[in-house]
Amino acid sequence: MGEGQWQTPGRLVQRLNVLDDLVMGAVNTRDSDLLAELLEEMADTVKKAGTKLPSEPVVLSDLIVPDPRTPLDEVADWLQESRTDDGLIPG
User: Fold this and answer.
1) What's the whole-model pTM score?
2) Residue 27: partners with Cβ closer than 8 Å, 6 or more residues away
3) Can you tell me the mean pLDDT for 16-23?
4) What residues does the PspA-associated domain cover (predicted)?
5) Cα 25 to Cα 66: distance, rounded to the nearest angstrom
6) What is the pLDDT at residue 4?
């Protein structure tokens, strides 16, 4: 998101996975408007339920939520590079 690291409760994973599946669908149908809406919802979900971590030290992240302004082609590249069917969110 470009807003640092956040710790999220485990209960959030199911909701993020639903949104992640929708993100993959938006990328597959090349719907950049829907993609931006879904990434915004993912970011809002993390910010509302998560806890912002200090900027130092940086720790490994389990997942990255792209900025909602990330171009569709860039998100598609990230998904392609992951070479899994998990999308942006593992699990």
Assistant:
1) 0.82
2) 35, 72, 75, 76, 79
3) 92
4) 1-91
5) 16
6) 83
Bridge partners, residue 51, by sequence = 7
Q: What is the largest CA-CA distance in the chain?
A: 39
Nearest to 12, CA basis, from 71, 62, 75, 58:
62
Whole-angstrom CA distances from 77 to 41, 44, 73 are 21, 23, 6
Tokens found for residue 12: 């959030």
> How far is Cα 40 from Cα 71, in angstroms, rounded to an integer?
13
Closest CA to 23 of 36, 12, 10: 36
- pLDDT value at residue 57: 85
Mean pLDDT of the region 33-62? 90
Q: How many residues does the chain have?
A: 91
